[in-house]
Design brief:
By secondary structure, the chain is α+β, with helices and mostly antiparallel strands. It is built from 5 helices and 3 strands, in the order ααααβββα. The chain has 2 domains: about 90 residues, no CATH class; about 60 residues, no CATH class. Helix 2 crosses helix 4 and helix 3 packs across helix 4. One of its GO terms (molecular function) is DNA binding.
């Protein structure tokens, strides 16, 4: 619900945007429900703590943690809890301004040798959420200026 390729490199960090903003139209985490947004915050803090433990001397990681702790009371509280046990979030509900609630399954693939993750969201076949995603893909293809 935001084109990360249009953002400056520094602003493409989802954890930074989630805790420090700005988010489009003032929405919290792109329309996630409060429960899903809270779980994302906890999972993000845990994941960043694991990265910081793996790369304690990486200046970008150290700076990101400092920036988040200083700029977000929520992140500072989560960071200070020292929780490192990740719990997978299997389902999320996004609230899109055109189609409403979209329930999706969330699968996270870790690419450990590159320290990256690929997050795949899918809707169950035959559900209103699947239909909403189909509608959004059609809107994206037919919108002026869309690339596909």
């Amino acid at each position: 619900m935001e084109d990360f390729s249009a953002l400056p490199r520094r602003d493409r960090n989802l954890i930074r945007r989630a805790f420090l903003g700005p988010l489009p139209h003032g929405r919290r985490l792109y329309g996630l429900s409060d429960a899903d947004a809270d779980e994302f915050a906890r999972t993000s803090a845990r994941g960043l703590r694991a990265v910081a433990a793996r790369y304690p001397d990486d200046p970008e990681v150290v700076e990101l943690v400092r920036e988040l702790r200083e700029g977000s009371e929520e992140f500072a509280r989560l960071w200070d809890s020292h929780d490192v046990c990740p719990r997978p979030t299997l389902c999320k509900t996004f609230h899109h301004p055109l189609v409403g609630a979209i329930g999706v399954n969330c699968d996270v693939l870790d690419i450990t040798d590159r320290d990256q993750q690929v997050i795949i969201y899918t809707a169950a076949p035959g559900t209103p959420s699947e239909e909403a995603l189909r509608l959004l893909s059609a809107v994206a293809v037919t919108s002026p200026g869309a690339t596909g």
